[in-house]
Amino acid sequence: MIINSSLTRFLRALWQFDAVSLSYNLLLNIAAAAFEGIGFMALLPLLKQIHQFRDDNLPAPDAWAMPAYLAEWLRALPADQRLLAMLCAFFGLIGLQSLLVTYREQHSPILQLRFVDHMRMALFRALAESRWRFLALHHSSEFVSVLTNDLQRVGIGCLFFLQLISQLVIFPVYFTVAFAMSPVISVMAMLMGVLMWWGLRSSSRASRQNGIEISRANKNLSNDVQEFMGGLKLIKIHGEAEGYMQRFSNVMADLSGHLQAFYVIRSRLQSVYRLVGALALAVLTYVSIVWLHSPPETLLVLIAVFARLLPQVAKVHVGFQQIWNMLPAFDNWLYWLDACREQRESLDDNKAARTLRDGIVFNNVRYSHPQSRQVCSVPALFIPARKTTVVTGPSGSGKTTFLDLLSGLQRPDCGSIAVDGELLHSQAGWRRMLAYVPQDCAIFDGSVRDNLNWGANDMADTAFWRALEQAAAGDFVRNLPKGLDTWVGERGVRLSGGEKQRLALARALLRQPELLVLDEATSALDSDNQQLIFEAIRALKGQLTVVIVTHHYYDIRHAVDGYIRVEQGSVGTWQAVDPSAENYIE
Ligand SMILES: Nc1ncnc2c1ncn2[C@@H]1O[C@H](COP(=O)(O)OP(=O)(O)OP(=O)(O)O)[C@@H](O)[C@H]1O
């Protein structure tokens, strides 16, 4: 039941993806099967007349299993030419069929690859559009595993499914040929096949359960690899590699165990089919000769049909196992796709940015992290536009949480946040108005230019250099071996911490934001570099709204207009700064 509903969902998704291509693939399969069947039918009169073609004692045209005009024409030919004509026809039909099969074999993998790409893109998009609150609750390895391992398995399963169609289509053709030769034997063979299928039905459940275990083991492996790679530097420094090796070895043993179990299910099935198939063939041959006294040519065709049919039945059964095994991976994809779509944000990020005129008002806002008792409350706060505000408070007091609310990443549980009098979460284009520089500044593998551009390629170099100068990063980028085209490595490993943060600030400024949010963006800098950034922020004073979290608030006093104090999850009001006061923030 569970298997069937999963299969239905899979088929629906494939159909909805590209009904035309799927139908075309199906038609190719039917055509190839029909030609194979007709080729086989051509064998029938051929075999029937093998012992007759030298004399002219030919059967009547209606006994030739072909249209009467064709039988008449063949009868009129001399015996040797008749045989030659039939062999040519047989070869022609099989040739045509093999052309169709070749074409189908090319078409199916393309359809499968497109389908998997489509699934991957759908999940990517759903992830990108879902709420941060939901995403932050789940480990990224969950998504990584679905996007890589699970979808790869769905691809393999999909290919098996497309092949299965061709094998299923060929069944009735073979059966018709066999039935024309001997109805009794054919019905007996079919009953045996159905019995065998029924006897082996438990393998379907085993394959599906095994598929669930493989998905789980793959997710654990993704998780461990991600954590290992993320902490590699520290693991090496602390010499903790051995512990990880042990973890890897356990996770891999788990995964290989389940993969092996599936190979065992498959090979057992194949060997059962070989054995029972041989037995069935022996029984049918015996029945055919001893009880039914079938002529040798009928027996020959029957054996030929069953010799081809049996491996097909085995292939179909194994193909189904592969599909049952893949379905949990498909279900995983569907589960996360639906979950992400349910958490879709309604913000229309494509709307053009506006200006921030007056300021941002928080009114009785409360927010609590999911599965946590930590609450962030903002009873009444007004952040004036075009001012630079520093947010201070002890570690863990809720400063980042407050910035997440301000940037619209998190929605308040109650209360409201309004920008120029309009509710933040009903504002189209809010994200276009702001730029955010977090503690971990997310530099990705690519050139300096790629990082400034978020991988796109639509800005002039002059804009880059202007932003780099503003972020006090112009000198260091000029000194890089290839300037803007220098590769910075994975997570920017080829740059120092300070260089990464200045690059991230330049990238933020390139967006020409109305609101610039910096969350301890100078934490990795020495005092000289920090001073450079603070100078850059001072230069922006009055041009845009800046909100900056820093523990070095004394050093930035000349660059800011006001401050907000956060204590134990409670965000205070905006206070003007008097930089001349010795201890300006109480
Ligand atoms: N995703 C989360 N789920 C549950 N609790 C969280 C989550 N993020 C933060 N918290 C909790 O909320 C509280 C405030 O965290 P937050 O990161 O906002 O503090 P902070 O003032 O920015 O700290 P720091 O100065 O150390 O960066 C902390 O106690 C933290 O444990």
UniProtKB/TrEMBL annotation:
Instruction: Name where it's found.
Output: Cell membrane
Residue ranges constituting the ABC transporter domain according to the UniProt record: 360-585
Q: What residue stretches are annotated with the ABC transmembrane type-1 domain? A: 79-307
Q: Name one Pfam family in it.
A: ABC_tran
Q: Which SMART domains match?
A: AAA
Keyword Ligase set for record: no
Record keywords, A-Z: ATP-binding, Membrane, Nucleotide-binding, Transmembrane, Transmembrane helix
Gene3D superfamilies (alphabetical): ABC transporter type 1, transmembrane domain (1.20.1560.10), P-loop containing nucleotide triphosphate hydrolases (3.40.50.300)
Which chain regions cross the lipid bilayer? 21-47, 83-103, 154-175, 181-200, 272-293
Membrane topology listed for this record: Multi-pass membrane protein
One of the entry's Gene Ontology molecular-function terms is: ATP binding
Please identify the protein, giving its name as recorded.
ABC transporter ATP-binding protein/permease
Q: What species is this protein from? A: Methylomonas subterranea
